[in-house]
Structure formats: C-alpha cells, structure tokens
From TrEMBL:
Each WD repeat, start to end: 43-84, 85-126, 127-168, 169-210, 211-252, 253-294, 295-336, 337-370
Any GO BP: mRNA splicing, via spliceosome
UniProt keyword Repeat, yes or no: yes
UniProt cross-references to PANTHER family, sorted A to Z: PRE-MRNA PROCESSING FACTOR 4 (PTHR19846:SF0), WD40 REPEAT PROTEIN (PTHR19846)
Protein name: Uncharacterized protein
Chain spans, region Disordered: 1-29
Signal peptide limits: none
Organism annotation: Trebonia kvetii
Keywords, alphabetical: Repeat, WD repeat
Cited PROSITE patterns: WD_REPEATS_1, WD_REPEATS_2, WD_REPEATS_REGION
Length: 370
C-alpha cells in the first residue's frame, strides 16, 4: 500500500542549477547523468518514480526499480549504468539480488515476476501465474526459492533454477503486501491487508500459524536474526512481537499515533525499530516491549527504517525528501541527507557499511558515502 500510494507518476524534475550533470551514454540508447554532489552520487536516467534500491551481496552493484517499467543496475564505485532491465509492461516495484549475486528478481504491476542474469542483463525467466499486480518479492537464504506476493491474495514459491511454481500459498483474504524468510529458510512470513500475518512451511506450503490481533492492514513483517521472533507493523498504529514457535503475541508496541510502515530488528542487539506516518521512528526493547527512544526530526511521514549491517547506525527515509542517520547507541541524529526533491521511498545500506543508497519519487536514486 505504501509503495503503491507513494509511487504515482510525478513530473520529471531537472537537476538543481548548482549540480552540474556528468552526462554519459546509456548502453541501451539515450543519455543518463551521474551528478556528483557533496557526499552523494545521483543516479539519473529513470523516467518515473524510483520505488526501491538494493545492493548486490558484494556491494559492487546497485539495482533500482521504477514506475517507468524498468529496473537498472549501476556500478556503485563509479555510478555508471551497467544494465537496463527492460521488458515489463507496467511499473516495477522491487529488484533484489539473489544471495549469490548472479540473479535479480523483479516484480511488477504487469503480473509477471522476472529473473535476470546480472552479468548480461538478459531476462532468463518470466514467471507466470499471478492474476493481479505482484507487489513483494524475497529470495530464500540459499537462493533456491523465490517468494512473490500479490494483489491476487496469494503468495507463490518458485524454483529459481527451473522457473517453475513450487507452491501457491492460499489463505489470505486481501492483498499480500510483503514476505520474509526465516534465517534458516524453513519458514515464510507474509503480511496482508486482511490484518493477519501467516507463517508457512516452505517445503510443504502448509500454513503453520495465523497471527491475529492487528485491527488494520499489516504493512510489514520481519524475523529476528535468530529466527525466534517476528515483528509486524500495521495501519492500526502499533507494531507487535510474536513468538515463532507458538504464534503467541508477546508484546504490543504502542506509542505511534498513525500507520506504522516499516519494522526491523537490529543485527547487533535485541531491539526493534519502527517508522511511522506520524513522522517519527521508535526503538523498542524486544524482550520487554519497552520503548527505548523516539527519533524525532522528520517533518512528514517516515516510510522506512533500516539498521546498518554492523548495527551502529539507523537510517530513516521520509516524504519530507530527506534521510536521517542516527547513532544507534544514543539515538542522536548525526547526519541529515538532503538533495532529493521528492519523497524518499526506499533505502539500503551497503554490505560494507560504507554507502547508503536511497530511492525517490523524484525519479533518481542516490548513493551516499558514509
């Protein structure tokens, strides 16, 4: 829902006068610009809002997915365009890399997920079966299974080698917005507009738990690093913590005053961070459910929150066009990243902690040096 609402086409925005574009030839035709600004490289070339960004496992490449019906692959060291992944007939919502970096999966409003070869940019598989827009996508930890979520109220599991459907997971009664694999790859958690989260056995396709309690759309779901807990975010202004082994709700995280869009666990300690329409992010103790701190400073909706791989930094993205970097230990805002001219809809830390990538409705992505 968040991405669909945020990514409506916007007029093409020209770079500010004080940014001199470094114009380079797009290998697929036309021109693209890499604009060097203080602390950031601007990846320009999409002709629609950029919905998501994702780093390759080695951090050498960045993928971007756009309303312009394409995904693009960029060299993170130079900002050069490596591939344009063209073929979808409608908006592309996400384009994550496989765990081995050899494939990119794209999902689109055109109903068909696709798999692409990252070395050539060629589409190697078109996955058919969904009947309405495909919104969410996740690779299993070993890369052998791809999960896709759809407006058709189903989740599909695909064999990434053969391109065949392994399982169709049915049971939700509304749009399925997102999915997350457990760290061991045995379970899949799905978040739905029906107000529930479901846990599925990946091998059999059986639904093993239905997590009920939210009174609004479940907008996001995440596993803890040890796989023992699940965190969910909801339109009901709360987040919840659940025990995977029993399906019991352990804690209700109350404090936000509007939709909670994003939820994530710290990789370094047992805490959870949430981002909300109320323009704040909050950090919670996962054991007690106690709110540790509120991160204030954004002037509009906080859409995304993410920890750096080492857990020392927290980043938030907002419709106020900025990204904020926070020190995890203290909650102090150490940088405000300004430059986007539209809502910032997605962000990702590089695996090395040295870069942060952001996507915006201003039709650009940016790579920030940390």
């Amino acid at each position: 829902m968040r991405r669909a609402l945020m990514t409506a086409a916007r007029p093409r925005l020209a770079p500010p006068d004080d940014e001199a574009p470094d114009t380079r030839r797009d290998p697929r035709g036309g021109y693209m610009s890499v604009i060097e600004t203080a602390g950031a490289r601007v990846l320009a070339g999409h002709t629609g809002a950029v919905n998501s960004v994702a780093f390759s496992p080695d951090g050498a490449r960045l993928s971007t997915a756009s309303e312009d019906k394409t995904a693009r692959v960029w060299n993170t060291a130079t900002g050069d365009l490596v591939h344009t992944l063209a073929g979808h007939a409608d908006a592309v919502f996400a384009a994550p890399f496989s765990p081995d970096g050899r494939r990119i999966a794209t999902v689109s409003a055109d109903l068909t997920p696709r798999l692409w070869d990252t070395s050539t940019g060629a589409c190697v598989m078109e996955l058919t079966g969904h009947t309405i827009a495909v919104f969410g996508v996740a690779f299993s930890p070993d890369g052998r299974v791809l999960a896709t979520t759809s407006y058709d109220e189903t989740v599909r599991l695909w064999d990434t080698t053969a391109g065949t459907t392994l399982r169709v997971l049915e049971g939700h009664s509304d749009i399925v917005y997102g999915a997350a694999f457990s760290p061991d790859g045995r379970l899949l958690a799905t978040a739905s507009g029906d107000g529930t989260t479901r846990l599925w056995n990946v091998a059999t396709g059986a639904c093993v738990r239905v997590l009920t309690g939210h009174t609004g759309i479940v907008s996001a779901v995440a596993f803890s690093p040890d796989g023992a807990l699940i965190a969910t975010a909801s339109f009901d202004s709360t987040a919840r913590l659940w025990e995977v082994s029993t399906g019991n709700c352990l804690r209700i995280l109350s404090g936000h005053s509007d939709t909670v869009w994003s939820i994530t666990f710290s990789p370094a300690e047992r805490v959870v961070a949430s981002a909300s329409e109320d323009a704040t992010a909050r950090v919670w103790d996962a054991a007690s459910g106690t709110m540790i701190r509120t991160l204030e400073g954004h002037t509009d909706s906080a859409f995304v929150v993410a920890y750096s791989p080492d857990g020392r930094l927290l980043a938030t993205a907002s419709s106020d066009t900025t990204v904020r970097l926070w020190e995890s230990a203290s909650g102090r805002c150490i940088r405000t990243l300004e430059g986007h001219t539209g809502a910032v809809s997605s962000l990702a830390f590089s695996p090395t902690d040295r870069q942060l990538a952001t996507a915006s409705t201003d039709e650009t992505a940016r790579i920030w040096a940390l």
